[in-house]
Amino acid sequence: MKSSFNPPVRTLMGPGPSDVSPRVLSALARPTIGHLDPEFIRMMDEIKEMLQALFKTQSPLTLPVSAPGSAGMEACFVNLVEPGDKVVVCQNGVFGGRMKENVERFGGEAIMVMDDWGKPVDLDKVEKALAETDDVKALAFVHAETSTGVRSDAESLCALAQKYGCLTIVDAVTSLGGIEVDVDGWGIDAVYSGTQKCLSCPPGISPVAFSERAIEAVKNRKSTVPSWFLDKNLVMGYWGGGGKRAYHHTAPVNSLYALHESLVVLFEEGLENTWSRHQQHHEALRAGLEAMGINFLVEEEYRLPQLNTVYVPEGVDEAEVRNRLLQDYSLEIGAGLGFLAGKVWRIGLMGSSCSRRNVMLCLAALENTLSAMGAPINRGVAALAADAVYSG
Ligand SMILES: *Cc1c(COP(=O)(O)O)cnc(C)c1O
User: Fold this and answer.
1) In a mutational test of the pocket of ligand 1, which residue from 117, 174, 181, 346 has the highest number of ligand atoms less than 8 Å from its CB?
2) Per residue of the chain (392 residues), what is the pLDDT tens digit?
3) Separation CA 270–CA 248 (nearest Å)
4) Which of 165, 177, 202, 235 holds its CA 20 to 30 A away from the CA of 251?
5) 306 CA to middle of ligand 1, Å?
């Protein structure tokens, strides 16, 4: 006989999931009702309105895909990419590589624009690729590269796509809720995100939005969408307006309660306030880490406040540090991915995890752990440096 599973209480400061507040967690425990119940449908309409406000879009095709961010990614590519389509894909980390995989699996041709890990997408290289290639269907890029902590200039990239007459597919999994995402203002055609990063919801849901142009492109496809589950034409029968809801799949009812609650929490704080909170705590964390002698991978201008990638000090076993943080402080930080593995840590300040308490805990825990392991860091200065940021 197995007994109940009771997870330890952790502080989550990795690349996601982030801390889920008791308020959002308790929403999960509300009574399950039918996914076609009029009360449930009323809540779905509110989720849609709040997601439109969050993405800053009027698009009626804004909805939460019932699966994690990777499914939102696939929903965008499987609907928009047909065999033979050319897609310019920007890669400056792990997630751009997944975009390439998506394009190729759906029979498209990925024209790659490569940049170093830790650098933003280079606008000149993108323009060159767009100018040199005929009939580009879409430009695809990651707004906030979670593998490196880099923010690329989404607004300028979208402007380039418009100049060359192609669609844009944007990964906003880590950016949404942490920094500005302006879908209509920037002219994004297909965007996907996730619940477990800056929305501080349990993982498993992916908010997406499609522009009118993207909807036109899906309607004008020569071939049927090769995924039944992610076919936007079919999903719209359930999530679409007009009050008529047809069964498509059983929505994850309780997970959507949690998403609804997390969006209510977000709009109580206000979108601009959320962004400035992320920026403020990032600056405090950064001051503390730099005082300790720990350096950032990414140049200041392109750093994401919600994902801080820093170099592991010389001679330190980085996995041992993460183990000790988990054992001694119940604190999770992230490891490096790909060829940054072993070289960096990724410290998340996402959503509810982005707080003064967590910044101070992380600095103290890192300082004590690194000192105990004999790492060459400055002691006794990190908390003061972070506090100086808070005191203005
Ligand atoms: C986390 C992440 C994803 C994948 O989301 P899952 O919910 O893990 O499937 C995609 N892109 C970026 C930039 C991410 O950070």
Assistant:
1) 174
2) 999 999 999 999 999 999 999 999 999 999 999 999 999 999 999 999 999 999 999 999 999 999 999 999 999 999 999 999 999 999 999 999 999 999 999 999 999 999 999 999 999 999 999 999 999 999 999 999 999 999 999 999 999 999 999 999 999 999 999 999 999 999 999 999 999 999 999 999 999 999 999 999 999 999 999 999 999 877 777 777 655 778 889 999 999 999 999 999 999 999 999 999 999 999 999 999 999 999 999 999 999 999 999 999 999 999 999 999 999 999 999 999 998 999 999 999 999 999 999 999 999 999 999 999 999 999 999 999 999 999 98
3) 33
4) 177
5) 14
Which atom, in ligand 1's list, is nearest to the CA of 146? 15
What atom in ligand 1 is closest to the CA of residue 142?
A: 13
Helical ranges in the chain per DSSP H: 22-28, 38-55, 69-80, 94-105, 123-132, 154-163, 183-186, 212-219, 232-239, 253-269, 271-292, 318-329, 356-372, 382-390
* Distance in angstroms (rounded) separating the CA atoms of residues 392 and 77: 45
**Burial class for 9, CB neighbours closer than 10 Å (0-12, 13-18, 19+):** exposed
Which H/E stretch holds residue 12? Answer: strand 11-13
> Cβ distance 72 to 229 under 8 Å?
no
CA distance 261 to 27: 7
Ligand 1: centre distance to CA 195 (Å): 10
- Backbone phi, then psi, for 40, in 5-degree steps? -65, -40
List of domains in the chain = 21-267 (3.40.640.10), 270-390 (3.90.1150.10)
Edge to edge, the sheet with strand 344-348 lists 11-13, 331-335, 344-348, 307-311
Q: Does the pTM of the predicted model rise above 0.90?
A: yes
The dihedral built from the CA positions of residue 347, 16, 210 and 32, taken in this order, carries a sign that is: negative
Say yes or no: CB of residue 68 within 6 Å of ligand 1: yes
Ligand 1 pocket member 70 (CB < 6 A): yes
